[in-house]
Structures are given as C-alpha cells and as structure tokens.
C-alpha cells in the first residue's frame, strides 16, 4: 500500500513575506563630494559651483543618485542642496547618504505603505535567505509594523523557522 505524501508546509496556513519583493529598483549612481574638496579637506564654494556647472548631469538620467562624502570632512549642508538643484532634472531620485543608508530609507518608505491590518490574525514567516542586500533594519521595521496585528511572526523558511513573536491568548 502506497502512502500519500502530504506537503505539510503548504497546508500550514503560514503567510510568507519576502522582503526582496520590496527591494528598490533602478540603477544607482554615486556622487562623492570628496572629488570636489580642496586638498581633500575643504569645500571651496566658488570652485564647487563652477565644477557643478561644468559637470555632465545627463549621466544620472533615470537613476537614483546617492550624494555623500567618503571621507571625514565636514560638508556644509548647502553643498548637498546645490547638487540637488543640478541633478533634479535628470535623476529619478536623489538621496543624501551611502548605499546602505539608502537601502534602509527605501525599505522604510516601502514598508510604510503596507496595510498591517490585512495580515490580522495571520501566522507570518518573514523569509530569511535573500540574494539581495536586504538591511537588518528592514526586518526590524516589518516586525514592528506587523506585531500588533498578527498571530505570530517567524523568521526563515516555512520548513525551518525561528520563532520571533507569538500572541498570548
């Protein structure tokens, strides 16, 4: 007599959320202010304005532009503002900070659009393995948003999870 194989994971009633589905799309370009510092230390306003005027801004067409300084120089706030005025007609989005900081902010923005009530009473598995650099802050934010609404939150894969939260009866 043959035994019927039963997919217990599929029948478990778990809802899987894959944070990779919220990964920001679009090509990323970098604008490092260190390239405009006099002696690698200070930003001269007149020289900086001239360099921005002569910069090829079309290279950022349709891209996400990250504006930052890769060394420890103190950059005046107006420098970021000037870059934004030149880049705005071309870039899809402009962000002050490095790539890791951008991913955190992009995830916070995306997760703010989730309707947590649509997960009310569900058992959630937040998928753990990813091919993209999902920041730990995204896992934290999703847990924070869902916790008041769901029955439980687990991390990992439906076949092997780490319990994170379970509502007390």
TrEMBL record:
Taxonomy, superkingdom: Bacteria
UniProt xrefs under InterPro entries: DUF2480
Pfam families referenced in this protein's UniProt entry, alphabetically: DUF2480 (PF10652)
Listed name of the protein: DUF2480 family protein
């Amino acid at each position: 007599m043959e035994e019927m194989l039963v997919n217990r994971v599929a029948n478990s009633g778990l809802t899987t959320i894959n944070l990779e589905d919220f990964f920001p799309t679009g090509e990323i370009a970098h604008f490092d202010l260190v390239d405009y510092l006099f002696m690698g230390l200070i930003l001269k306003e007149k020289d900086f304005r001239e360099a921005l005027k002569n910069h090829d801004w079309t290279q950022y067409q349709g891209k996400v532009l990250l504006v930052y300084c890769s060394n420890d120089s103190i950059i005046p706030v107006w420098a970021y503002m000037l870059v934004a005025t030149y880049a705005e007609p071309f870039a899809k989005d402009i962000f002050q900070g490095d790539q890791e900081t951008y991913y955190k902010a992009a995830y916070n923005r995306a997760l703010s659009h989730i309707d947590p009530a649509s997960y009310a009473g569900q058992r959630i598995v937040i998928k753990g393995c990813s091919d993209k650099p999902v920041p730990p802050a995204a896992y934290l934010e999703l847990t924070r948003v869902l916790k008041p609404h769901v029955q439980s939150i687990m991390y990992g894969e439906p076949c092997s999870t780490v319990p994170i939260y379970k509502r007390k009866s």
